[in-house]
Design brief:
Number of domains: 2
CATH topology of the largest domain: Rossmann fold
Largest sheet: 3 strands, parallel
Strand content: 5-15%
Number of helices: 14
Order of helices and strands: EHEHHEHHHHHEHEHHHHH
Radius of gyration: 22 Å
CATH class of the largest domain: Alpha Beta
Strand order of the largest sheet: 1-2-3
CATH superfamily of the largest domain: HUPs
Number of strands: 5
Shape: globular
Distance between the termini: 48 Å
């Protein structure tokens, strides 16, 4: 279920790399939090196209094409541009400049120790051929967070080390300038945790090919649910089954709003007498009900491309003012030479 904030005055920054369509893992991990949190908070959502280049530099057109697609996904799930500022990272030059300044406040050894970086290097098979931009992307994320003066960052648990490193950099800068120039941020981690892919073998990921897109058709949803692993020892309907590690029940926990029914289904499955087909039918219904209105809203926004571009332009213009003001404050605090404005 969505995590909640207890700080109504928080400034929120979150975002996604435009490397493909957003999927149920994004929805579970962050998107539905953003929809809830946009009421009563100053929320910025960053389409991180510059960061996406850290491991997609040989296909920048792929990134550019998906900026619009990610914006459609945001609008489809209910992110309201009247309440949330949606902006494009590469159009905010202050972020690059602040990243350059922050790189002087962290060591290569510290970057290499970051658990998120270590895991992603292994997943991508970089070995020692790590793009410098990829190794340093936690610094760029720290600059993003600090530039918006964000105090709350909705992320998955695997991204918590990025927030920790951000706060280390912010604390070092604040010590250096002698006062609290920039606030520290708190990670807001959803209770449901990381969502497994439809194959049950890893987290849901576009690159792993085990994701279910938010724009998936009804047939694609049904096919994905049919492929899901359950309990391999649950051979007959009468056999007791295991709920733990059962992908179908993982998804019911994440998306079925009827908690009492899910609890009853688990008890029935554990004692035997409930077949996998019946449980999968329940999940099919839940996902169809969840994704149908999202898909319909997405189609409606896709028919208004000029309006989507206006939303990105206006949001980026507002974000540019906020981030540039932070950069100027950092430069002044560091005593950098000013030629004139």
């Amino acid at each position: 279920m969505p995590a909640t904030s207890t700080d109504p005055g928080a400034v929120i920054l979150t975002g996604d790399r435009p490397t493909g369509p957003l999927h149920l893992g994004h929805y579970c991990g962050s998107l539905r939090n953003r929809v809830a949190l946009q009421h009563g908070h100053d929320q910025f959502v960053l389409i991180a196209d510059a960061q996406a280049l850290t491991d997609n530099a040989d296909d920048s057109g792929h990134i550019t094409r998906h900026v619009h697609e990610v914006a459609l996904d945001y609008l489809a799930v209910g992110i309201d541009p009247e309440l949330t500022t949606i902006c494009v990272q590469s159009a905010l030059p202050a972020l690059c400049e602040l990243t350059q300044l922050f790189l002087n406040l962290v060591t290569v050894a510290r970057l290499e120790r970051n658990p998120t970086i270590k895991e992603e290097i292994q997943v991508r098979g970089f070995g020692r051929d790590i793009p410098a931009g990829f190794l340093c992307y936690p610094v760029a994320q720290a600059a993003d967070i600090a530039a918006f003066r964000a105090t709350l960052v909705p992320v998955g648990a695997d991204q918590a080390p990025i927030i920790e490193q951000t706060n280390e950099i912010v604390r070092r800068l604040n010590r250096q300038v002698g006062h609290t120039l920039l606030p520290e941020a708190r990670a807001l981690i959803p209770e449901s945790g990381r969502l497994a892919g439809v194959d049950g073998r890893a987290k849901m990921s576009k690159s792993q090919g085990n994701a279910l897109a938010l724009s998936a058709t009804d047939d694609a949803i049904r096919a994905a649910v049919r492929r899901m692993y359950t309990d391999p020892d649950h051979l007959r309907v009468t056999d007791p089954g295991r709920v733990e590690g059962n992908v179908v029940f993982t998804y019911l926990d994440a998306f079925d709003p009827d908690r009492d029914t899910v609890h009853e289904l688990k008890a029935h499955y554990r004692r035997g007498g409930l077949g996998d087909t019946a449980v999968k039918r329940r999940l099919e219904t839940v996902l169809l009900d969840l994704l149908a209105p999202i898909r319909e809203r997405r189609t409606a926004w896709a028919d208004r491309p000029d309006d989507v571009r206006d939303i990105l332009r206006d949001g980026t213009r507002r974000a540019r003012g906020v981030t540039q003001a932070t950069l100027e404050a950092v430069k002044d605090a560091l005593g950098l030479y000013r030629v004139g404005r």
